[in-house]
Write a structure and sequence with these properties.
Helix content is about 10%, strand content about 40%. By secondary structure, it is mostly beta strands.
Amino acid sequence: MQREAVGTCGFQRFVRTDAYVRAMTEKRIVITEFGTYAYPDPCKNIFSRFFSYFKGVEVTDNALVNVYPVGEDYYACTETNFITKINPDTLETIKQVDLCKYVSVNGATAHPHIENDGTVYNIGNCFGKNFALAYNIIRIPPLQADKEDPINKSEVVVQFPCSDRFKPSYVHSFGLTSNYIVFVETPVKINLLKFLSSWSLWGANYMDCFESNETMGVWLHVAEKKKGRLLNIKYRTSAFNLFHHINTYEDNGFLIVDLCTWKGFEFVYNYLYLANLRANWDEVKRQAEKAPQPEARRYVLPLNIDKADTGKNLVTLPYTTATATLRSDETIWLEPEVIFSGPRHAFEFPQINYKKYGGKPYTHTYGLGLNHFVPDRLCKLNVKTKETWVWQEPDSYPSEPIFVSHPDALEEDDGVVLSIVISPGAGPKPAYLLILNAKDMSEVARAEVEVNIPVTFHGLFKRA
């Protein structure tokens, strides 16, 4: 993790998770990670290794993906059931927390929603009825007067069904408004039986257990947040990969769902192995051209359905070209409005003015621009007009943009955008914290550091 403070020196510290401590102690990968299988213990012979496989799956707690608040505490997380409590000022590791001990989930995403009162919503797969896989939405309440840890009061709000009994979809994020929860179930599946058997018998990593359902397309599920009631409406659309929701909001009987998609059913992570990214630039581009292509899209989900409208487009909002057609089998087929598209250029890692516009109608989003998977620019997108603004410098590789609103903001984009930029070229200062004007993406300042900073995924801004 790293902590940057404008006007002062930043510092970084590794989170002392079990995965980290054991790897450093034994000088090898001890717990299998997303794309790396644990190296065998050289002190064990083949028979000892064989029998050790039957001790069960050892899940990583390598909290490298995101950080989020729960009550007055902060947790670093990955996408398993483990989250790690940290001190946000010193970045010291405090303790590991196993969410399985509090709610019925096998893991949870690294993109929970945090409401303004501190309520946390998240999603994770679980075992539902008749031992079939399902997805639980969990709720962690805000800190109460009794000061008890809010995690102790975690609860399941609603359960979404799984399209395949033993193969849950990979879930990285979900949508939330004041009244609704939106879950997008993609064709990228985790083969649970393969996961358990391969882990126990012949050894594998998480990536080895992914497969694609070529005929499923995408299913969208909606539930009422306050009542915990699943809506019996079957939304369907063509196949895509999904990692990040941009925003979701309600408008006159419709849900507007903005997503960063990758077209097709093949898992885009298949193209992100280091061997591909370390190739020469021409080969990197060739690989990217084979991969699912990126597109930021808007889907519109009608909430009020009349069978008399079969065969018709149910979307009546004047500002979008997205459609939703009621079919004779009572499914609703969705076609999106494309809000950003470029040849092999992705708008990813989206951020908005979340505190004021999360789950509400909005205009602006900020994203990391991926050029053939390489992050080489920061982008601002007006989702209404599709106008874009870009910051870019040669040999500079930014991270996720983080929007910080001005304390006296009058408009949605009054504020700054923060990003950690890696600049590995010649010079003693290989990284810096970049500060941009959120209105036009012009540079305000940069704080350079003399240490190497690893590539980051997600983060947050915490006022001192």
